[in-house]
Amino acid sequence: MKIVITGASGQLGSELYELLVNDTEKECYFLDRKQLPLDQIILIQDILAMYQPDLIIHAGAYTAVDKAEEEYETANLVNHLACEEIAQYCRLHGSKLIAVSTDYVFDGNSAVPLNEDAPTAPINVYGQTKLAGERAIQKWCPESIIIRTSWVYSAYGKNFVKTMCRLMAERDQVNVINDQIGTPTYAKDLAMAILKIADAPDWKAGIYNYSNEGEISWYDFAVAIRDFRSFDCQVKPIPTSAYPTPAQRPKYSLLDKSKIKAAFDIAVPDWKLSLAKMLAEEIKN
């Protein structure tokens, strides 16, 4: 199997690289923004044609949620129009596509775990452009698989866990929002789930949810990080209203994982177990 992975230098792309780099049964090409500039959509199909992939794992995205509010054009190019080009390539050449999306396609007003059929209503530019990307993929490549995920972290790149570790080492107190509810996703777990889907005997197209198990706030997440690392730092809960940001965040984005578990026999680890595994690793770049 010949696989192209976009967003190769990101959290998910880095975890996929670790899992695939020594796989002798797959011919893998890891493309970062230099090899595949997603904001230059006129180049995308020609670049993909150089590799002739059987499968594209589209992990690349514009993920600067607050910055997207003032950079709509760039966010839309990367999250929407690049997805359209990739989906068109897949349709023309018969390639399979697994694309990663986000819980930010929801408005956060639910009180129960969100399944794949829950109404979408993004409340920020990032979510709007990601939803537009989903729709473009479904239009041009209806046989694709889209995986919505949330609160991604990893030993690689920039993320909440690494930020908290840095701040807690420097400060006596950190303030963390306690009224946004969801579940974190360890990028390595998501990468393993994606590869299990890629290797599955039956390709089952559609939208799927994936995050770790559990229901927590960012405050709960921060307390667990502190306790695992034994930082001498007070974690103070604060409401979203006390920490205004350019982009609104969903208040509730807990994802129901029943569909992906049943379709691909995927076991989803509890968030605390995955956090412990990540923190046991050396934190990378």
Automatic annotation (TrEMBL):
GO terms for cellular component: cytosol. It is an enzyme of class 1 (oxidoreductase). Keywords: NADP, Oxidoreductase. It catalyses: dTDP-beta-L-rhamnose + NADP(+) = dTDP-4-dehydro-beta-L-rhamnose + NADPH + H(+). The keyword Oxidoreductase applies. Residues 1-281 form the RmlD-like substrate binding domain. GO terms for biological process: dTDP-rhamnose biosynthetic process. Gene3D superfamilies: NAD(P)-binding Rossmann-like Domain, UDP-galactose 4-epimerase, domain 1. Catalyzes the reduction of dTDP-6-deoxy-L-lyxo-4-hexulose to yield dTDP-L-rhamnose. Belongs to the dTDP-4-dehydrorhamnose reductase family. NCBIfam families: rmlD. This is dTDP-4-dehydrorhamnose reductase. It comes from Sphingobacterium puteale. The gene is rfbD.
